[in-house]
Amino acid sequence: MNNPMNIVYDYQGIAIYLKKKINEGGEGEIWETSVDGQLAKIYLEKNRSTEMYAKIKFMIEHPPVNPTKHQGHNCFTWPTRLVRDDKQKFLGFLMPKIESAKELINLYSPQLRNSLLPEFNWKYLLTAAKNLAWIIYHIHERGYILGDIQPKNILVNNQALITIVDTDSF
Predict the structure, then answer these.
(1) Phi, psi of 154, rounded to the nearest 5 degrees
(2) Of residues 4, 51, 146, the one with CA closest to residue 43
(3) What pLDDT digit, counting tens, does each position of 14-68 carry?
(4) Would you give the DSSP letter of residue 62?
(5) Residue 4 has pLDDT above 80, yes or no
(6) What topology does CATH give the domain 7-169?
């Protein structure tokens, strides 16, 4: 990112401070922000197309139903706000920050599962599987297709609640 002060803006002009880069990949970077409970995904310049802007804007305006909202849980890291630079150029979006969850792959191995989530017995595993199916149903019901379904993009917390990340690949 070419902004040395790490300040971005939402499309209402509200300043958002990028505090700490926590991950990066082929599409962009994930940052902790000054907005409580929100992370920012900042796309690499090559990925900041008008098509990506339109897609993320559409996603914000048409989110799927969150079947775990009544439990205070985000089952997707769905885009919540577009972010831009000080010249009005699209950079990425804000999304919910997920706390205390493990990648699904950590549940595959009984030894690793027992060390990370010792309370996860067969009942929890089956509940997590049911919850994943339920979330995918709600995604499909809204007309979205889960484009990057892999264990690293599925998080599980200690209540067997699922969160799907990397939702901008839908």
Answers:
(1) -125, 120
(2) 51
(3) 999 999 999 998 899 999 999 999 999 999 999 999 999 999 999 999 999 899 9
(4) S
(5) no
(6) Transferase(Phosphotransferase); domain 1 (1.10.510)
| Span 94-152, pLDDT tens digits | 999 998 899 998 888 889 888 988 888 889 999 999 999 999 999 999 899 887 688 88
Q: What angle do CA 59, 165, 95 make, to 5 degrees?
A: 55
Tokens matching residue 113: 């599962």
1 by Cβ neighbours in 10 Å (0-12 / 13-18 / 19+) ranks as: middle
Matching residue, tokens 């920012």: 40
| Nearest Cα residue to 166 out of 114, 151, 157, 156 | 151
**Which residues make beta-bridge pairs with 76?**
164
Amino acid (one-letter) located at 152: K
